[in-house]
Structures are given as C-alpha cells and as structure tokens.
Specification:
The complex is a heterodimer of chains A (49) and B (730). Chain A is mainly alpha-helical and 49 residues long. In chain A, 63% of the residues lie in helices and 0% in strands. Among the domains of chain B are: 88 residues, 2-Layer Sandwich (Alpha-Beta Plaits); 147 residues, no CATH class; 157 residues, Rossmann fold, CATH 3.40.50.1000; 102 residues, Calcium-transporting ATPase, cytoplasmic domain N, CATH 3.40.1110.
Chain lengths: 49, 730
Amino acid sequence: MSVILYLVPIAVGLGLIGLVAFLWSMKSGQYEDLDGAASRALFDDDIKS
Amino acid sequence: MGSNLDLSLFVRHSDDGVAQLDLVVEGMKTPAAILDIEKAIGADPAVLSARVNYTSRRVSVEWRDGDYDPTRLVDLLDQLGYPAHPFQVNEQEERETRVSRYLLRCLGVAGFASMNIMLLSVSVWSGHVSGMGEETRDFLHWMSALIVLPAAAYAGRPFFASAWRALKGGGVNMDVPISLGICLALVMSIFETWHHAEHAYFDSAIMLIFFLLTGRYLDHAMRRKTRAVAANLAALRATSANLIAPSGEVICVPAESLKADDVILLRPGERVPADCVVLSGHSEVDDSLVTGETRWRQLGEGDLLHAGSVNYKGALRLRVLEGSSQSLVDEIERMIEAALTTKNAYLQLGDRAARLYAPVVHAAALTTAIGWYMAGATAHDAIITAIAVLIITCPCALALAVPAVQVVASGALFRSGVLLSSGDAIERLSEVDVVIFDKTGTLTLPQPALVNRSEIAPELVERAARLALSSHHPLARALSTLALLREPFDTVEEEPGEGVRTRLQGLDLRLGSAAFCEAQGAAEEAMARHPDGSLICLRHGDQAAVFVIEQALRPDAVACVQAIKALGLECRLLSGDRAASVEPVAQALGISNWRAGTKPADKIAALEALKAQGKRVLMVGDGINDAPALAAAHVAISPITGSDLAQAASDAVFLGEKLMPVLKAIEIARNARSLMRQNLGLAIVYNALAVPLAVAGFVTPLFAAAAMSGSSILVTVNALRASRLKEAKL
C-alpha cells in the first residue's frame, strides 16, 4: 500500500495544476466576454496567406 | 452627432500617457461585427488597441494621449452602421465586477478542493467495507485536512464575513448556521483524525461551501448581467446638449457636463437636458414626463423648463440653472426621501426562515448532547453526536432554496424584457393586490402616434409616411415610422412652418398644416373628435387626408389590464393629466377607479390610504411626478423611457412598446414565490428525516455527503421550473 504515499500527492498535484490554470485564465480576462470568445475562434484573419 | 462632439467627460487618462474610451455599440447583430469594428478602428496607427466585448456590446479603445481625436471614433462607427455612444463604467458596476471575480475565484478553489477530497473520501468509505489499515486511513484523513483547511479558509470567506456582519449587527442570517456548521465540522474532524478515529467530515464541509458558492455566484452573475444591460440602455438614451460656447460656436456635450449658467441651444424635437430658464425664443413644450400633462405648454422668455420636457415648436436659447435649485425637483426629491424613510426594510423569505431555523437547530444540537450524556454516553461521544446534528442540519438546501429560484426567475424576467434592480423585488412583486398605473408614457406610448390610421386609405398613409421621411418636424416622426418603403422621395421642398411637398404621378403631393394642404374642412371635423390631438394633413391632387397624432395607448394595454384583473388584482389609474384626457383612457381599459389631476402628494396620499387598508401596491409610472409614489409603493416598475428619477425609485424597468412585461413580471414572480415555498418545504422535509437519524447517532460522513448533496440538487432542479412559465395568452 505504500504506493499511495506518492500516488495521492501526485493526484493532488495534478489537481493543483488545474486550479492554477483556472486562476490564470481568470486573471487574463478569459471569462470577460464568453459570447465573443466563442466566435473569435472561428475568425481566420490571423492566417497569413 | 457631428464632429463638434465633446467627449472629454468620458475619456480616461492613465499615468503612462494612454487614453481610453469605452463605447456602447448598437447594431452588433452577428459576431462578424467584432472583426468589422476592431479592424476599422485598429487601421489608424495612432490607436493602440481596440477590443470589442460582444457579450456586453461594448468596445474599449486605447490610444496614446494627444495622437488621436476620439470624436473620429464615433463618426467612424456611425459610418460602419454601428451607432456608438460614449459610456462611463459606473462605480457600482465596477464593484459588482470585483465581487463577481472574487466569488468565481472562491468557487474555483472550492471546486478543486471538493473534487480532490472526493478522491480520498471514496477510498476511505470503501475502506470501511473492504477493510483498510488504520495507518492508511489516517494518511488519507491527514491528506484531506491538508487540502480542505486552506481551501475552506479561502473559499469560505464570503460566508464567514457575512455571518460576522450579521452577528455584529445583533441579527442572525442564513450564513450564521452555515459558518458554524463548517467550522465545527472542521474542528471536530481534526480532533477525530488526531485520535485515529474512523470518521471525519472534511468532505461535507468543503462540498457545502462549493454548493453554496455556486448558488451565490449564479445569483450574482444574473444580477450583473441585468445591470450591464440597464447601463447600456442608459448610455443609449443619454441626452446631449448643444452648448453655446463664449465664442458663439455650438458644441455637443453630454448633459452631465453642463454647469450652472451655461447657455444652450434647444432645437425643435430635442429633449431638455437640464433644468433651465428661457433666455430667448418662443415655443411649445411637452411636459408629460415631468407632470403627466399631455397638452403642450406655451412658453417664452423667462419661463422655467424642467429636464425631460420635449421642445416641439421653435428653437430656444436657455440658461442652465444650478442643480436642484428648482422648487419642483427639490420638492420631489424631499418626498422620495420621506417615502423611503417610512418604508420598512423588507425581510426576505430566506432570512425569515433563517431566524426561525438557527435557534431551533442549535437547541436541537444542545439537547442531543445533554440527552446522550444523561443517558450514560461519554462526554466525547455526546459532543460528537451533537456536532453531527449541526453538520447534517447545516442549511445547504435551505440556503439554496430561495436564491436558486431567484436566479432562474430573474433570467425568465430578463427574457420577457423586465430588468430587476433589487434582489427581493420578485418576492415583493408576488404579494401585490392592487396595481396603480400612471397614464402618460406608462399606459400610453412615450411618443405620440397616429391614432386614426384605420380611417385613411393605406396608399395615402404610405405616401404621407414616405414624404414624412424628409421632414424635420417633430410630429412627422410619428408618420415616418409607418413607411413601408424607407426611401425618401427624390426632390422634396420644405416650406418652413408650413410643410413639405414633392411631385408624384404628375401631381403636387403636400404634407403639412391644414392651410398648406387646403384641407381646413376635414381638419376642423377631426379636431372636434380629437380635441387633444395634433393634426397633419396630406393633399395629392383631389385626394386629401387628415392624420391625427395623439398619445396612443400601448398596443396591448387593454388585453394586459384585463389579464391583470383576471389574476385577481385590482387596477387603478392615477394621472397628473386633465380629466378630459384621462377618462377616455380609463373607459377604454375598463378601469372604473381613476383620478385625474393628481399632484405627487396626492399620489402618495392615495398610496398611504391603500396601505392603511392593508393592501400591497404595485406602482407603474414613468414621470418625475410619479417618482415619490414609486418610492413609497410596495414595489414599483417603470418603463425604460421613463425619467431617471422614476427609474431610480423603481425596483425594475421594462423594455419595449408593450405593457405585457408588467403582466409577465407579476406572473413570473407569483410562480417563483410558490416555488420558493415548495423549496423551503423540501428543505424542511429533508431536515425532518435527517435530524432524528443524527440525534440517534446513525450519521456517518458518507450519509452526510449523500443527504446534503441530494437535497441541494433536488432543490436546484425544482427551482429550474421557474423558467417554464406557460406562455401568457396575449
């Protein structure tokens, strides 16, 4: 059972990475304009031809 | 808006030399507008950034101070077909945005913690069955403590702070038992883990925080959305003023930037931006937004004008008076003040439940502890059982019961065109038994409209409407909106003070005064039937028509008033207008209880009389003269076209030309109220089942987790029914 001694901390660490990613995305304003963000993904003006 | 527009009030300058302007943009129908606008604005090298927020329909532009003239921005967007209005984010909205982010951060932390705790707790629960070593269980418990303690300390702050505020104020709200439950669950779990006990309640504590934060965040997000839309609408209808600069130049400035003794020019068709006195010129003005009176008032040099009146005849030069030095507005504001102080703070259903709930639960826990101790249990066991009672009764479902319905119901109201400004308005709306309407601008349309359309041949209406497109006369707008083909005729001549004319099918087509159109006979006849109306005549060859423009009822007013009566509510009409104008409206609507010529004080007296009879009044009004009554009423709604004072005194505003939102609001509120009661009932049933088990000492962490999340989900699902209001029969 000693395997849980490092598996559990790894699991929690992965969760923490998710949390940090969420806080970062919030800080960078990604929840400010949810409707616009959905459409911006479809614009192809940044493709240089 | 010309290039002589002054935007200095709206431009924000930061220390590093960057200027920023926010604009509300109309006409963004598809997301393609994002690209159009950002590209067009960004094409100018002086612009540092242009960012469209499609959700809030706003655009934020930054440029290096001095390099760019922001008035070009408004013109540019106008040319693109997106009329833009400068906009200032108000303090309240900024504060709400901060709170919303704070709640979302807390929610993220609570979500992370509760998911990871479940990973550990499910292992512990299965360990009880499959046999788990004590060391492993202790390790998992300590791991849980490591995650939950900081997470609860962070994410629980909204509840702890609110509970602390309530206790300091000597009261109890729902957050007090919540905070107590969370803290006790954590302290007891640490104590138990320390002593290698079997059960710990870390999962219950963090899950409770997560559920409650979800409810709170959604509630907040809904309110923020409503407020943003209301702020946008306010920016769209913000009045501008034509300031006459000392140099004689006319500059367009926002009404808020006017100072006392500024001289402004008021053209026909424009709204008075501030309280003024006439310096020169003669005109007739429509005071209906101020007094409710629909008949135009003649005025000349030295006369007073109130903000909100509309100028109809000639251009005026006005001098702005010092803010609120006006006897009328001053008096109205004093009356609003007085109305608000006599009005008791409304105690929400949820808080009333909390007042009953907290003492009962705490007494039950205490009795449990004493009971078990007397029955021979050890002090440790007795206290653990009592704490289990507190944890299981921690009012998760109860605290969600009301806000969950509130979120769904305000969403439903939002979709029917009602914007709520106060949270408890739904509960108050559901209790009304008398509806008092104002007439002008509330039951009638805010703009005068054509009332005798059915008497005139459709092709004549169309010709008149197309010709009216070329006229600048304020009344012509009532006709021009009817034009099916929205192209003006090619060559139109305007005869000042007379009308407009063009050639059509080889004949003279004229629109204007009766004399100009040689239709005096028909005009006199029409005047006799519509003494309050204004006339526009049409002459085309030997065909003639007289159009009566009058304050018309909202298109669904009759059906709406009948439907409100069918709900068992009494409808009344209190107007500041003359009896001769009020009576036909009251008759058309079937309202027998009406009064005309009421002053603001009379309206308040009428409300007080009803209040003394124990009636709860919904007041619907738009004018400055209605504002004190709106503030005094149990709950108040104002149309979006109403005066600022009226809207500030109301609990909700409704959009559009129809009166239906008022009916919808009552129906949705009633439905919401019954769902709130159902939800409270469900929460009580849950407690009635769970508490005896807890008192008896049967509660394990697994049971607590299942019961608490089960009841919360049940209550939330039930709340979703608030949006499924059957379509009204209109």
